């Protein structure tokens, strides 16, 4: 899997607790609830011509996680938008494209290292303020992927957890399974590790969703053992508005291998063709026509003003 260092990212600013700080100084207390116990929620939208693609969907994804965490103080969306705007301005990113914005939320700093949310307080016992971090970086869409020949994937030995253990719609930093699967992909020299759920159905790829195409139909796994995804949501909508039959389904490894096309999808890349899985050729081993069409439709959606939020136009 390719990885690119962008020198422009060396001297960026992040925002932490309302303070704009150079990235080398951006830090959180070691008593942070997200650091100590994995209570950290995140999502990463993208800047397109200075506007944020489907920002509200990303904020909704974050809110679902916040609501699951029993926080005493819950910031509304305007607080997130202000932090995002301020850090983008600090980085002179107005009008930019190719910026990936990681938004992170934690319940705040604790007075003792306990899992009890009652420990997330100030020294006078009042509720601690929640922590919002926004860290934008220059990262073009899909730049690390081969969009001419397509990419290869493996099936990971690690499984995605099921909602039996915790609601997987909570997009938290408890991503050790996916992170280890990423290591497997890197070791195998492929772009993605596809992860099964405990029942043996494909759940998603290590850091993105996936879909198969069979007989002109788009099938993507249910959001059961994976977090919800904005790219997946947009692609389902795009299929619907272009009369491409699309549905959520349980996808076995046999169906995966027998697919006409396989793709992964996320904000980082848009739809990316997977032409080989575990060395097996998918379809004719080339980027398929439906993946090409969906990529074009996804690009159209990214250019559509109704999907773009003008973060710089908003009043303080
Ligand atoms: C585990 C996982 N799956 C899928 C995705 C893709 O989600 P999105 O389309 O919202 O970028 C992400 C991205 O954050 C992710 O971390």
Automatic annotation (TrEMBL):
The answer, when asked if Transferase is one of the entry's keywords, is yes
- Cofactors: pyridoxal 5'-phosphate
Could you list this entry's UniProt keywords, alphabetically sorted.
Aminotransferase, Pyridoxal phosphate, Transferase
Q: Does the keyword Cytoplasm apply?
A: no
- Name any one Pfam family assigned in the record: Aminotran_4
The Gene Ontology terms for molecular function here are: transaminase activity
Q: Which InterPro entries match?
A: Aminotrans_IV, Aminotransferase-like, BCAT-like_C, BCAT-like_N, Class-IV_PLP-Dep_Aminotrnsfr
Alphabetical list of SUPFAM superfamilies matching this protein: D-aminoacid aminotransferase-like PLP-dependent enzymes
Q: Share an example GO biological-process annotation for this protein.
A: carboxylic acid biosynthetic process
Q: Which family does it belong to?
A: Belongs to the class-IV pyridoxal-phosphate-dependent aminotransferase family.
- Protein name per the record: Acid aminotransferase-like protein 2
What taxonomic classification does the UniProt entry list for its organism?
Answer: Eukaryota, Sar, Stramenopiles, Ochrophyta, Bacillariophyta
